[in-house]
């Protein structure tokens, strides 16, 4: 206890590292648990006692490729209403395949990925909403909107909205505003009267997407479901769910999104914990070294090794408890901050739903204390091994040299094994096998570099010093010697910074290589001048937008592309379930695919198709063979194999092609998917820029439709990858912050350790300014040592990962030197920043008191 409180400042820096790591873990758990509570309340509130819908065999959140959701006949409502135990039943219409815009053509949908939902206003909606202004829609020109959307976009009664659906546009004025009784995470909701919803969203009257059944008093949802299933003529054609089952199914749709957030953030928290371990090891190692004489005296008067060992571990436990308790509290604050940030971005999360499960503080405390105690175990064990006489003579810890040799051999062995795993990754034939070896190689080389860090410190620091520090004369030489005085300490401090920068470098190389490879592939393979898509989310193009594009003057041709869910079967029984791309013959001009056998243009003839080389090899098929194609929602076709394309590409890898005419022959019109994309070229000799502007003007009424030329497409790809990398860099900043704390702590303890030495140097003429400069230069060289190792290691990982991407067609390795150099130079500034406080404190040291220090 005395030792703990005698070094409050040093312990505080280590406690901050524990606090940050625990806060990130606790904050992540609270944030995702709160999101789960919000969705659970919403789904429970919106679900009826029993819901009947069409059984499509698809995931509930899958985008409808026809632009219209699956529906039920209205006559079914009356049959269900007569079921035993049913109090009432009503038909509901709901579609997420819509875009809602205001009079200025601004999209009223969410910017966070939440859906835009259009439907009819029903009694079931009163479970979760109440009309707070105006009234429910009563005719084809009236619409009601939710209050959250109205607030976000400044909508009021009388404003006009246009709802763009697969069956056409619905123009209506706002006559009502309804507020959610529970938190709406961000969905935009509009309501019409039943007839308008049926005609505009389903393209037919007398149909509903689902039937909401309310049970009579005393009838359980489970019993009501059994009665409804028994009353249906063909129960297998329908999906019948209780309120809880509906809520659970809806929750499972968002669980994948929430798990990505949860495990991604926990992964970065784990990295921060790993970095914090080095900080704690360094702190306790230096504290033990400074108390060598004290430990010797305690051993001389009767303290056992176990008692000395336990005293250090008790200090670590106190540190872990204090840091963890504060971290759990900070984690709740972090979760609230994240909720506010998400609300500002458009995803509404309310603090009244704040959920702190008992497992959150338990996990936070356990992690913080266990990690801290484990990190302090090695210094504690080293303290217990100090013999009384050696300690009293300041002879140091016995066996250090031997332990260093053993550590070096272990580190070199692990590094060699990791390097061999990375070599196997680079020479792998299959990406899945290579990915396992890549993971092993990264882990082994990282651990190996951490262990051999002290061995590398001597050589690397001398090289850095020769380049950077010699210009500062004697002060620079002293800074170099200080950094080399304890290679183990320098290695551990640099390793903390190395981990974060290695990941930054690896991801930078992978991201740059992906962009360069995709750009090169586009230049070689894409012949189309313009690409038209329905934006993000995989939604199909609205038929009105397709017609508008086809009517643009100045276009040489427009190629329509459909994704047809189908199962392709070879004569030997080999099946492949996926998307069959249906296009027009001009697609061969828009996307140049290398053909290994046959004629690709013939695949767009009647009853013909092509397959990729991988499927052809696996199924043993050749040009001229007949394949069986079972179209989803349609009939099974017998198609002639007209071509085999090379799968060694980054675009349309493994794709199978057929013609739109063939697809239309076997799939009914109401089941035929809408166009996924359009590819277009300008007429020979035409003005491409003018045609490009005409294209954008033609689809301006639908803000979700994107028109891009090849330059735009490349930039969009670059921006997409860049946004992901920036987000990852932001999360890795936590590890770098903890690493900076480690540098600060190391320097602060080093200054205390060298108090007498500093006093003597000041007595023989070293100025305060020179002293501060010496400490800053020492910090800079340690930071650059960690950066050099981290960036070198990360670039090796990234280059190896690119070899795996090459198996998927992304063959260009590009090292982002501007980013690498910026990070390296930035590390020097990190070192300068970390040295500010220790250098200032050293400069204020009293010379006489310093000399008198024992």
TrEMBL record:
Q: Where is the ABC3 transporter permease C-terminal domain?
A: 268-388, 731-846
Q: Which family does it belong to?
A: Belongs to the ABC-4 integral membrane protein family.
Write out the annotated subcellular location.
Answer: Cell membrane
What species is given as this protein's source? Answer: Streptomyces graminofaciens
Q: Which InterPro entries match?
A: ABC3_permease_C (IPR003838), MacB_PCD (IPR025857), Macrolide_Exporter_MacB (IPR050250)
Any Pfam family matching the protein: FtsX
Provide the topology term for how it sits in the membrane. Answer: Multi-pass membrane protein
- Show where the MacB-like periplasmic core domain sits: 12-229, 493-697
* Matching PANTHER family: ABC TRANSPORTER PERMEASE YTRF, MEMBRANE COMPONENT OF TRANSPORTER-RELATED
Q: What is this protein called?
A: FtsX-like permease family protein
């Amino acid at each position: 206890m005395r030792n703990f409180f005698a070094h409050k400042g040093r312990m505080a820096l280590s406690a901050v590292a524990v606090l940050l790591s625990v806060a990130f873990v606790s904050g992540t758990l609270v944030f995702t648990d709160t999101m789960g509570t919000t969705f659970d309340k919403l789904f429970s509130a919106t679900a009826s006692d029993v819901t009947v819908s069409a059984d499509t065999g698809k995931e509930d959140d899958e985008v409808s490729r026809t632009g219209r959701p699956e529906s039920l006949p209205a006559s079914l409502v009356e049959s269900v209403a007569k079921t035993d135990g049913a109090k009432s039943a009503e038909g509901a219409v709901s579609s997420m395949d819509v875009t809602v815009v205001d009079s200025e053509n601004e999209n009223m949908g969410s910017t966070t990925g939440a859906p835009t939902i259009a439907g009819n206003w029903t009694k079931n909606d009163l479970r979760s909403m109440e009309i707070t202004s105006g009234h429910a829609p009563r005719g084809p020109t009236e619409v009601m909107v939710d209050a959250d959307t109205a607030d976000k976009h400044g909508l009021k009664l009388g404003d006009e909205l246009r709802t763009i659906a697969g069956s056409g546009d619905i123009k209506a004025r706002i006559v009502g505003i309804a507020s959610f009784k529970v938190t709406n995470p961000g969905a935009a909701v509009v309501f019409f009267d039943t007839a308008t919803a049926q005609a505009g969203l389903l393209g037919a009257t007398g149909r509903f997407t689902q039937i909401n059944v309310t049970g009579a008093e005393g009838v359980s949802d489970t019993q009501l479901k059994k009665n409804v299933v028994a009353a249906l003529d063909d129960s297998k054609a329908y999906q019948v769910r209780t309120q809880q089952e509906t809520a659970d199914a809806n929750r499972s749709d968002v669980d994948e999104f929430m798990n990505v957030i949860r495990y991604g953030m926990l992964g970065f928290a784990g990295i921060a914990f790993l970095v914090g371990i080095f900080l704690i090891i360094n702190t306790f190692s230096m504290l033990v070294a400074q108390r060598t004489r004290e430990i010797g005296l305690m051993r001389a008067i009767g303290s056992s090794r176990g008692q000395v060992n336990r005293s250090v571990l008790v200090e670590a436990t106190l540190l872990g408890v204090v840091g963890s308790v504060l971290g759990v509290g900070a984690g709740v604050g972090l979760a609230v901050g994240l909720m506010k940030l998400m609300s500002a971005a458009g995803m509404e999360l309310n603090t009244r739903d704040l959920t702190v499960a008992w497992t959150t503080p338990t996990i936070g405390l356990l992690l913080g204390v266990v990690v801290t105690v484990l990190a302090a175990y090695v210094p504690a064990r080293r303290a217990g091994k100090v013999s009384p006489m050696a300690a009293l003579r300041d002879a140091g810890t016995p066996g250090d040299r031997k332990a260093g040799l053993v550590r070096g051999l272990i580190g070199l062995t692990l590094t060699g094994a990791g390097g061999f795993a990375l070599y196997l990754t680079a020479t792998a034939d299959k990406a899945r096998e290579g990915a396992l070896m890549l993971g092993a190689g990264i882990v082994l080389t990282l651990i190996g570099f951490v262990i051999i860090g002290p061995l590398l410190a001597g050589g690397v620091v001398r090289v850095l010093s020769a380049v950077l520090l010699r210009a500062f004369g004697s002060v620079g030489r002293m800074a170099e010697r200080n950094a080399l005085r304890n290679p183990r300490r320098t290695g551990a401090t640099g390793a903390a910074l190395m981990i974060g920068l290695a990941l930054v470098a690896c991801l930078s190389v992978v991201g740059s290589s992906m962009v360069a490879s995709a750009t090169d592939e586009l230049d070689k393979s894409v012949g189309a001048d313009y690409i038209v898509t329905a934006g993000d989310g995989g939604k199909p193009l609205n038929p009105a937008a397709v017609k508008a594009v086809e009517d643009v003057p100045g276009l040489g041709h427009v190629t329509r592309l459909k994704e047809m869910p189908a199962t392709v079967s070879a004569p030997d029984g080999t099946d492949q379930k996926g998307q069959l791309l249906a296009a027009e013959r001009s697609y061969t001009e828009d996307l140049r695919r290398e053909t290994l056998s046959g004629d690709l243009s013939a695949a767009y003839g009647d009853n013909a198709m092509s397959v990729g080389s991988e499927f052809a090899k696996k199924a043993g098929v050749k040009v001229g063979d007949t394949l069986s194609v079972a179209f989803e929602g349609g009939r099974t076709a017998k198609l002639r194999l007209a071509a085999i394309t090379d799968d060694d590409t980054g675009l349309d890898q493994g794709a199978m092609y057929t013609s739109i005419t063939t697809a239309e022959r076997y799939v009914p019109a109401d089941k035929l998917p809408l166009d996924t994309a359009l590819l277009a070229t300008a007429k020979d000799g035409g003005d491409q820029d003018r045609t490009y502007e005409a294209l954008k003007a033609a689809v301006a009424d639908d803000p979700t439709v994107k028109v891009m030329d090849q330059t735009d497409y490349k930039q969009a790809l670059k921006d997409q990858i860049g946004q992901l990398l920036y987000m990852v860099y932001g999360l890795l900043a936590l590890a770098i912050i903890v690493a900076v704390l480690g540098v600060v702590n190391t320097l602060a303890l080093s200054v205390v350790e060298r108090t007498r030495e500093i006093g003597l140097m000041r007595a023989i003429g070293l100025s305060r300014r020179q002293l501060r400069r010496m400490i800053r230069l020492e910090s800079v060289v340690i930071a650059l040592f960690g950066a050099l190792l981290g960036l070198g290691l990360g670039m090796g990982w990234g280059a190896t990962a690119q070899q795996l991407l090459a198996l998927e067609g992304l063959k260009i390795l590009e090292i982002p030197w501007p980013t690498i150099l910026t990070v390296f130079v930035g590390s020097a500034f990190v070192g300068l920043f970390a040295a500010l406080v220790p250098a200032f404190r050293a400069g204020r040291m009293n010379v006489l008191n310093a000399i008198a220090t024992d």
